[in-house]
Design a protein that fits this description.
- 44% of the residues lie in helices and 3% in strands.
- The protein is elongated, with a radius of gyration of 20 Å.
- The termini are far apart.
- It contains 10 helices and 3 strands.
- The chain has 248 residues and is mainly alpha-helical.
- The chain has a 3-stranded antiparallel sheet with strand order 1-2-3.
């Protein structure tokens, strides 16, 4: 039974945009004549952007220079602004929490907590059970560093009292170790083995759980690129990810 053929990225939880709510209000057309561009103002903006390590990318978005190579879902909040120049407060907020070349796994912790609440029979300790750990191992191309981060690392971060959601595992540069492909047959076998090991979990509800689908989407980007996408949710996530991964 091909479990992952039933896993639909349409079940993904929509990722939040990083833009301020104050910047998302509709802009009403005005009739005044546009002011000429003032060089001094442009220089001031660039100085502030540089202070907080932001840059304007080729696509017109504003992105953090320190973490721009890390997958969008594994960055601290407010790492990218698609249309408007970010406020100083927004840039400072990201600057203070940015993990630079490493992972921010707060999003993954949030998803796993959601799985614990919504999937009967799945507990936080399920992350380190051999069968689930093996599933993760297959999805990340048997990269043991990635396995540890997305299992033991998430469990460790979940136990923290603060909101930093970091683990003791060194994830600097780990973004470059995601595998280019995932073996679908092995992934199906690993998932079947995990579901068999926990009879209390309903396979259908597990595969339809939005938190689990999003968890897979984050830890196995190469695998989920082959899924059948729901256009409404996927279009938004793809636009964010495309802009978030702009390079020079």
């Amino acid at each position: 039974q091909f479990y992952f053929s039933r896993l639909r990225a349409g079940d993904l939880k929509s990722l939040p945009l990083n833009e301020d709510s104050s910047q998302s209000e509709p802009q009403h057309p005005t009739t005044h004549v546009a002011e000429p561009v003032v060089v001094e103002k442009i220089l001031d903006v660039n100085i502030i952007l540089d202070k907080y390590s932001f840059m304007k990318g080729p696509s017109g978005c504003f992105v953090c220079k320190r973490c721009r190579m890390v997958p969008f879902e594994l960055r601290a909040d407010k790492s990218i602004f698609l249309e408007t120049c970010p406020t100083t407060d927004s840039m400072k907020q990201h600057f203070d929490s940015c993990q630079e070349n490493a992972f921010d796994i707060s999003r993954v912790v949030q998803l796993v907590r959601g799985m614990v609440l919504s999937i009967h029979g799945f507990g936080i300790d399920s992350l380190v059970q051999p069968a689930f750990r093996n599933l993760v191992k297959v999805l990340v191309g048997e990269n043991e560093r990635l396995v540890k981060v997305f299992t033991e690392g998430v469990l460790e971060a979940d136990c923290q009292d603060d909101d930093s959601k970091t683990s003791s595992f060194d994830t600097r540069g780990l973004w470059s170790e995601f595998p280019p492909s995932v073996n679908l047959q092995e992934a199906n076998e690993a998932l079947a083995s995990f579901l068999t090991s926990v009879p209390a979990i309903s396979p259908s509800s597990f595969l339809q759980d939005a938190d689990f689908v999003s968890y897979v989407y984050i830890i196995a980007p190469a695998f989920t690129s082959t899924l059948s996408y729901n256009s409404s949710v996927t279009k938004e996530n793809e636009e964010i990810s495309d802009a978030a991964n702009v390079v020079d």
